[in-house]
Design goal:
Keywords: Cell membrane, Glycoprotein, Membrane, Sugar transport, Transmembrane, Transmembrane helix, Transport. This is Glucose transporter type 1. It comes from Asbolus verrucosus. By secondary structure, the protein is an all-alpha fold. It folds into two domains: 198 residues, MFS general substrate transporter like domains (Growth Hormone, Chain: A, Up-down Bundle), CATH 1.20.1250.20; 34 residues, no CATH class. It has 15 helices and no strands. Helix 3 runs parallel beside helix 6 and helix 4 runs antiparallel to helix 10. The longest helix has 33 residues. It is globular, with a radius of gyration of 22 Å. The two termini are 37 Å apart.
């Protein structure tokens, strides 16, 4: 069942997805303030006025470079998870989160919009890694009967992050010429909070058992998460999963695309992802 320590571990991990939601939406509200800042910096440097179109172009870079970093982080998620572990990868990833948030916070002090671009890129890599590491960690620590339900916590955290960013970004709070660097810099809070909460959580039992072959460590982690000594069923389930993985033949991307038997599930997966993105929810 849903024990206290399992709930705690999920809360600590899901802060990474709150970070993702916050940074996805936070740049939208202070658009005009950021463009004015860019115009001021440009005039101070070159003694010329920056046109509205050029300012909008620079602002667009600040928005879109986050997605570029996210793509890079997303591709690297599996490698990081296997090398450092799910929990270890999340802890290391917070270094990127804190660095990116501090860079964005210091943009106005440094009087440089390039610092904003760099900070957004770094925080994008952080969020891309979170989108791989957080669902992986949660699904691997959750018992089988709760795995589907607990998987939805990720999306809930994303939407909470989006909501927070939009509320804090209104003009009456931090959506001002002086407040927007702090608004962006508040992304440091989820990273710092996760650094405090996550260390006492166990590593993923599946990672310990299957990847590292540390059976006793996996048992200890399961006992803490399940608040019970009866963990043999979980161990056997992971063993069965390992055997099934080893029995599966690996195929290339071209073989996946050309396989008649896999074509229907492939099309379903692609259409579902396109439907989510083209629905406009992120916009």
């Amino acid at each position: 069942g849903l024990t206290f320590f399992l709930s705690y571990a999920i809360l600590a991990a899901v802060l990474g997805m709150l970070q993702f939601g916050y940074n996805t939406g936070v740049i939208n509200a202070p658009e005009q303030n950021i463009e004015h800042f860019m115009k001021d910096v440009y005039k101070a440097r070159y003694g010329e006025d920056l046109s509205d179109d050029s300012a909008r172009g620079l602002y667009s870079i600040a928005v879109s470079i986050f997605a570029l970093g996210g793509m890079l982080g997303g591709f690297g998620g599996g490698t990081v998870a296997n090398k450092f572990g799910r929990k270890g990868g999340l802890l290391l990833n917070n270094v990127l989160g804190i660095t990116g948030a501090c860079l964005m916070w210091c943009t106005k002090i440094a009087n440089s919009y390039e610092i904003l671009f760099f900070g957004r890129f770094i925080i994008g890599v952080n969020c891309g890694l979170n989108t791989s590491l957080v669902p992986m960690y949660i699904s691997e620590i959750a018992p089988l009967n709760l795995r589907g339900g607990l998987g939805t916590v990720n999306q809930l955290a994303v939407t909470v992050g989006l909501l927070l960013s939009q509320v804090l970004g209104i003009e009456q709070i931090l959506g001002t010429n002086d407040g927007w660097p702090l608004l962006l810099g508040l992304a440091v809070c989820p990273a710092l909070l996760q650094l405090v909460l996550l260390p006492i959580c166990p590593e993923s039992p599946r990672y310990l058992l299957i990847t590292k072959q540390w059976e006793e460590e996996a048992r200890k982690a399961l006992r803490r998460l399940r608040a019970s000594n009866q963990v043999e069923e979980d161990i056997e389930e992971m063993r069965a999963e390992e055997r099934a993985q080893q029995a599966e033949a690996s195929i290339s991307t071209m073989e996946l695309i050309c396989s008649p038997t896999l074509r229907t599930p492939l099309i379903i997966g692609v259409v579902m992802q396109l439907s989510q993105q083209l629905s406009g929810i992120n916009a």
